[in-house]
Amino acid sequence: MRREVKQPNEKLKYQREIRGWSQKKIGMSIGTSKDMVSRWETGERSPGRFYQEKLCALFQLSAIELGFLEPPKAAEGSIASPSESSALPVSAQDQSQKDTPRETGGPVLDLSRRHVLKGMLQVACTTLVLSPYIMLHADAPHQLEYHLTHSSVVDASVLDDLDNVTQRYWKLSQNFSFEVFSGVIGHFQTVTALLHRSQPVSTAKRLSEIAGEVAQIIGKILFDFHEYDLAWSYYAFSLSAAQTAGNADLWAVGLGRMSLLHIEKHQPQDALTLLVASQKLAIQQSGTRAWLACIQAEAHSQLEDLEAFTRAIERAESIAPEVLSDNDRYATGFSPSRLAGYKGSGYLQLKKADLALGALQTAESLVNSSSLRRKSVILADMGTAYAGLGEGQKASETAYQSLTIIRHVRSLSSLQRVYALRAALQPWETAAWVHELDHHIHEVYKEITAEPVASLL
């Protein structure tokens, strides 16, 4: 019996090395180990479809470019030229979106717009890898003169202005998605264009930090659009930027948001893997640590592990007194209301409607009046709890309250919570008020998607 010869994946290894990324960094970014990445590169193992898609999203390259598939052959038997294949990667999820409508009524971004966003990110990834080292290699006098006369070095006041704009977008993104999307994209292009120029290392690091923040805002908005593959890619960029800048909190929040993507896709074990990685970082902000504990609780509730869920919530509660409400740089939204909301949604997952309702009522009583999107989620979850307790019409009333807010904030993620509420109303399926609610939900969805996101790019 002939032993199968290992085929090292030189393409994957090359793409990692030219970016200056370690095998450990790759593993942490996609939720696996350094050893597994090493096995993929040596050919001892081949990544499955799940990790292939993650690697394609992380590198912003196709499966062919990363060595997972052989290039297609032309009719004459020769290998197709690079120009014959797509210049931008298309994941399996993108491919399926051409023909398969989403549960919420169809794709929000068309394929060409996804390619625009992917192309933008691909350019940004290149600048992030190169920029911190550009000034270090200007050894010859003529090289130094070139940098001084042909590049625009960003001074502290410009960095402060960029930082202030970023902070405003963080705040706006808590309640708005559609309305700020084009502005955030423009801001991202501005920051990454400055990164591409020759800068002192300290300036390049701060620009990397700002770029990582803006990428996370974009990912957060794309998450709200249900563009999960694109959101993952921008979060992955944010992790790289945070590592370059040496910002553990930004890195940890990025891992937290990636974990929420896994939870949304009902992959709680993958979420927990990333959350364990986040705990190894030197996180400075207590609010970040408490928020990550809440996400961990949510993952455990999806696994129906009441004991682990309770431990994670208790850990968040123990940290909560240390949290300063005005120190939420990365818009985690952690607060006493948020903590109670996570507890309530977890109890819903664990099918404990009475405990869920009590926690959610606390969350509603504590929620800030300006946190409209958060209130819409709390109300939708309260409706689900009422349905679980047999109070169908009360559930319907809270659904209408949630939908009224969703009309203003135009959040597909919030609307998804109302869909979960509607599913809980199955016992009252034939009631007239349920049919009226269905009509209202449909009308709100049409209003939210009336202005295509594509027009905002």
UniProtKB/TrEMBL annotation:
InterPro entries linked to this entry = Cro/C1-type_HTH, Lambda_DNA-bd_dom_sf, TPR-like_helical_dom_sf
PROSITE patterns named among the record's database cross-references: HTH_CROC1
Which Gene3D superfamilies does the UniProt record give?
lambda repressor-like DNA-binding domains (1.10.260.40), Tetratricopeptide repeat domain (1.25.40.10)
* Transmembrane domains' residue ranges: none
- Any idea which GO molecular function terms this record carries? DNA binding
Compositional bias (Polar residues): 80-95
Which Pfam families would you find in this protein's record?
A: HTH_3 (PF01381)
Q: Where is the HTH cro/C1-type domain?
A: 12-66
Region called Disordered, residue ranges = 75-109
Query: Can you name this protein?
Result: HTH cro/C1-type domain-containing protein
